[in-house]
Amino acid sequence: MSSKVLVTFGTMTGTTREVAEAIGAELRAGGHAVEVARVDEAKSIDDFDAVVAGTPVMIGMLNGPFRKFMRRNAKKLASKKVAWFLVCGYMNEPTDENVNSARKRVDSISGLVPDANPLATAMFGGAIKTQGSDFERLNPFLKFMSGKIAADMKDGRDWNAIKAWARHLAAKL
Ligand SMILES: Cc1cc2nc3c(=O)[nH]c(=O)nc-3n(C[C@H](O)[C@H](O)[C@H](O)COP(=O)(O)O)c2cc1C
Asked: Which domain holds residue 145?
């Protein structure tokens, strides 16, 4: 069956956007009609059968606009097919402690929308962009902080794992 799917994401520097776009491309290849949009630019979710929502972790917290979007749409999300993904530095070094930290955050997404029942959740490694449209929206302090952290951070996004998760999800939607 083909579903109408919104892939929506919070982001600071833009790396979660790229993950969302890769997921969207796989879902499209799986036969679904897909729109990919930032949480603060997404239209009403009324027209969609399914919502795949992703957030980075910043200073231990989920992205603010992402949390707002999820709370605002909590009731509607409860009646749709949903899946969550997390993009974070913890998964760049997946020690037990870091995986637990990531797991806590991805589980906390369901805390924002307690009546929704995710078909799948995922935790991916992260990265930091220091250019591009999302980065350019940041205030000077966040640009500075991101630049400093970026210097020591590898790109931990495993594109094969991201695509595999999306293909698996495509079959469930
Ligand atoms: C200021 C800042 C704080 C961060 N804090 C955390 C953190 O507490 N835990 C974590 O796992 N990753 C942390 N990260 C890494 C981000 O989650 C990761 O780089 C992510 O891919 C960024 O997503 P974005 O490009 O969509 O904003 C931080 C990154 C930045 C720039």
From this structure: 4-170
Ligand 1 centroid vs 55 CA: distance in angstroms? 10
Number of structural domains in the chain: 1
CATH of the domain at 120: 3.40.50.360
The residue whose C-alpha atom lies closest to atom 19 belonging to ligand 1 is 127
- Looking at residue 1, its pLDDT comes to 75
pLDDT in tens, 118-145: 999 999 999 999 999 999 999 999 999 9
Q: In 30-65, which positions are buried (b, 16+ CB within 10 angstroms) versus exposed (e)?
A: bebebebebbeebeebeebbbbbbbbbbbeeebbeb
User: Percentage of the chain surpassing pLDDT 70?
Assistant: 100
Q: Nearest residue CA, atom 28 of ligand 1?
A: 58
